[in-house]
Amino acid sequence: MFTEEMHPQYQIDDSSSSAATAPRLTQKKLDLRSPLSEKRKREITDKIAEFVGLDMRPVNIVEGEGFKELMRTLEPGYTVPKTVMNAVNAKYTSTRAEISK
Known about the structure:
This protein is mainly alpha-helical. The protein has helices at residues 2-6, 38-54, 65-74, 84-100, and strands at residues 10-13, 24-27.
């Protein structure tokens, strides 16, 4: 369900709902962490790009459920962006420029 996907701290409680009433949302956990700054998100994305490049991993490794679960465990407020390929390309370009010097 959309709510559970976008807000994992909530779950739908259908036990008390009938056709006339909407299901209730109950909170599963309280997350007191502050949201990640844009700088921290960029740092993580850059490190993912570095991981892909240094270890010569396929880029789609970051789309796997195991990798996403790892990231949720390590940094719950971070979501791997769809634009991770841009970060990989930028890392490639900057590394190539350094080598060419």
